[in-house]
Every structure is written in C-alpha cells, then in structure tokens.
Task: structure prediction
Amino acid sequence: MNQQLAGYAPTPIAARMENHGRSMLKVAMATGRDLYARTGSMVAYEGFIQYEPNPPAARQVASQWVTGEGAPIMKCAGDGLLYLADYGADVVVINLDNDSLSVNGSNVLAFDADLRWSVEKVKGMAKFAGQGLWNVEIAGTGWVAVTSRGTPIVVESGRGEDETYVDPDALVAWSPNLKVKGKRSFKASALVGRGSGEAYQMAFSGEGIVVVQPSEDSTDRLRIRG
Result:
C-alpha cells in the first residue's frame, strides 16, 4: 500500500511556499517568519505551529474586508510544514519582488506577514456599485498564495491602446497600477455574467497583468460597502 501511495507523499522543501498538487499549498514555517492565512484553511501541519484568529495587528485593516466583527484571516507562527486549501480550489503561488498585487478578498489564501497590505477601494467603479468596490492590495517582497476556481489565465494588459474587459465574478487579481473603469452592457446582459439585470464589466488599461478564473463565483467577489 505504501508503494501505491508514494506518489502523493510530500516532496522535499524547495521554497517558502509551493504547490502540493493543484489544490493544496505547502508553507515552510520558521520562527520569525509569520504568515497570514484565510481562517479555516489549515488542513494539516507538521511541527509546532500556533494560530491566532482575528489578530489585533490586522483587525483594523481587515475591518473593511468583511461586515461583522471578525476578520477572515488568522496569524500562523512556529516551525514546521503547514498545509492550506480552500474547498478544492486551484492554488496559485506568487513570489513578489518589490512588487504589488491587488486581489479579491475571497481569493486570498495566504501571504507573508511582513508584506504590506491594505483594503483599498477600486477606483473608477463607485458609480457602478453604489458606494464602491473594495480589494486587498499586497505589496513588498515575499510570498502570496491566491485561489482560483479552475486553472486561471493570466492576461497581459498594455498592448497598444486596447482595453482588457473582465467579468467581475471571474476576476482573481490584477496589477494595482492598471487603470480600472466600469462598462455597462445592455445588449450583452444575457451573455456576460449570471445576473438577470444590467450587466457590467471591468475595463483595464495600462501595463500589467489580469488574472481570470474560468468560473463565476456567486459570492460578493468585490465587497460592496453600504
């Protein structure tokens, strides 16, 4: 039996964060290298690792992320191997090198605690969604893991003057330096999105990337505050 299951065994540690299969994240934990992770995402761990839900240092920043008192993240600290997952979603690992990424809150799985992060209003979208839409912006040098409902596609923006249009329900992340605006679409409302009313897309321009998943999530992918 051990030989039959050998192909699923953990692989030697190669990086701070890496995939174990498509749907699981392996994090090499070490003292002094704390991690923020989605609450409830831990599926297994080895060694000595402690968890702090709704940590005070993140509570104020994350208060805009969700309604209610609790923040959707926990702080992980210790030494060992930590395995995280989110209901079988694909996991995408990104190593930021003095760079930044804007991520839908529902797609954030984990990130290094020493990265700078904040909850930012998506500029140019307020008139399409009442008081605006909010995203999590992560910046600095370190590791980030995001989830995708299926294998995502990374679209490069900035090719000429063309804009990249994305259904908000399929959007995972994008470069924060991109310009964003909303576009209403009456005739395409039966083809884009799953709503029965007026459809709208997000238009990106500038140089950067847009990460799109091949699935539309029925939850509020961009938090509407109101």
